[in-house]
C-alpha cells in the first residue's frame, strides 16, 4: 500500500471519509507482514518511533527513587514487613506503571486519536537528557534504529550519579482480523540499580480499537512480568472496557515473593488495580478480596511528564530524528497530504540509495551503540538468570512468552536462533559526532 494522493476538488470531510475507508479495506485485504506497509499520510504522527524511548523515563524522579536507600515506599501498610529488596521492588513497579500513559495513550489525548509514528530508517538516532537538581545528576536517553527489516529500536537510559541504567529493544508485529489491529511486541527491558540489583521487564501486547469509527486508540492486553534478581515477581494483567462494563486502560498487578508463589497460587503480597492512564489502588493480599483498607498507588494525571531536553535541530546531525524528519513533520502539522508524500519519498529514496551502495560495495551497516548478542553469549546482562527465574522463553518469540508453552511453540521457527540487542557503553563513551 502506497501513500495516498489527495483529490483537492473534494471537501475535507469527503476526503477524510474516503481515505479512511480505503485504508481499512487495504489493511483487511493485505497478505503479509503489516509492518512493511507504508501508512497513508492522514494517519501519520509527526514523531519518529525512535523518540518513544524517552517515555521510559518521563517521570525520572520515580526511576531514581528506586536507588534511594533512605526512601520508604508509600503507601506503607502497618502489617507488612518491608525488606530493602521489597521496598525497591515496589518503587520499580510504580515506575513501570508510570511509563504506560506516555507510551500508549498520550498521542490519543494530544492528537485526538492514535497516530502511526514515522518508521525510522536504519541508523537513525535520538538523544537527549534530563538535568536534575543536585545531587541527582543527569539522566541520559539514547535511542537507535538497529534494524529496518524487521524494524527494531534499541535504547538505553542511564544516570551514573544514581547508578541506575535501563536498556532494551522493541519490535512490533501487527496483524489484522475482525476489524481490529493486534500487535505483538518482541523484546524486553533490563533495569539495573546499583551494582547488583537487576530487573527483567516484559512488554504487553496491544490492539488498536476504534478503527471503524475512524478514531483509533490503544488498549493493552495480555500480561507483563517483572522479575527481580532477589526473587520478587510481579504479573500485570491488562484489559480494556468490555461491551457492558469496565473502564478502558485497566490493569491488575499481583506482587509475590517469588515466581513459585505465583505458580502455586499463593496469596500475593500486594494487589494493585485501576487504570494505567488514571488512578490505581493498592491493597495487601489479605485485604484485596474484601476491598479493605485501600490506598492510592499512582495517579497518572497528577504529575505531568518531565520533558526530555533535546538540542536544537540546527545542532543535530543528519542521523538524528528531528533533523532528518523535520520537513515531513512540518508537512504533517500543516495537513498537506501531498507535501507529506513528497518529503517522505525524498528521505526514503535517499536511504534506499545508501543501502544499494552498501550492497554494491560489499559493506554492511554497523550499529552505533548497540551489539547483537546470541542468547548463549549474553554474559553482559542478567537476562538468562532472570528469564529462567520467571520461566520465560529465551527464544525469538513475543515478549513475556512462557517457556515450553503452546504460545512459544506457535512462534518458533526451525532456523531461528535467539539474539538480543545490548547497549555497549564503551561505544557511547567513544562517540565523537553525536552529542547531548
Helices, strands, pairings?
Blueprint: H1 12-29, E1 44-48, H2 60-65, H3 84-104, H4 106-111, E2 116-118, E3 125-131, E4 138-148, E5 151-159, E6 164-177, E7 180-193, E8 197-202, E9 205-209, E10 217-228, E11 233-239, E12 250-256, H5 259-263, E13 270-275, E14 279-284, E15 295-299, H6 321-324, H7 326-334, H8 337-361, E16 370-374, H9 383-389, H10 406-411, E17 419-423, H11 425-429
Parallel strand pairs: 1-2
Antiparallel strand pairs: 3-4, 4-5, 5-6, 6-7, 7-8, 7-9, 8-10, 9-10, 10-11, 11-12, 12-13, 13-14, 14-15, 16-17
GO molecular function, one term: oxysterol binding
Protein name: Oxysterol-binding protein
Family: Belongs to the OSBP family.
Helix content: 25-40%
Major sheet summary line: 13 strands, antiparallel
CATH topology type: Porin
Q: How many DSSP E strands? A: 17
Give the CATH architecture.
Answer: Beta Barrel
Number of domains: 1
Number of helices: 11
Give the DSSP E fraction (strand runs of 2 or more residues): 25-35%
CATH class: Mainly Beta
Gross morphology: globular
Report the average pLDDT across residues.
88
Structural class: alpha+beta
Query: What is the first-to-last residue Cα distance?
Result: 37 Å
Provide the low-confidence segments as ranges: 1-18
Radius of gyration: 22 Å
Order of helices and strands: HEHHHEEEEEEEEEEEHEEEHHHEHHEH
Which terms summarize this structure?
single chain; alpha+beta; Porin; 13-stranded antiparallel beta sheet; two-stranded parallel sheet; 17 strands; globular; disordered N terminus; oxysterol binding; OSBP_sf
Tell me what you see in this structure.
GO terms for molecular function: oxysterol binding; sterol transfer activity. The longest helix has 25 residues, at 337-361. The protein is globular. The two termini are 37 Å apart. Helix 7 (326-334) packs antiparallel against helix 8 (337-361). It has 11 helices and 17 strands. The chain has a single domain (1-391, 417-436), classed as Porin. The protein has helices at residues 12-29, 60-65, 84-104, 106-111, 259-263, 321-324, 326-334, 337-361, 383-389, 406-411, 425-429, and strands at residues 44-48, 116-118, 125-131, 138-148, 151-159, 164-177, 180-193, 197-202, 205-209, 217-228, 233-239, 250-256, 270-275, 279-284, 295-299, 370-374, 419-423. Strands 3, 4, 5, 6, 7, 8, 9, 10, 11, 12, 13, 14 and 15 form a 13-stranded antiparallel sheet that branches. Strands 1-2 form a two-stranded parallel sheet. The protein has a two-stranded antiparallel ribbon with strand order 16-17. With 436 residues, the protein is an alpha+beta fold.
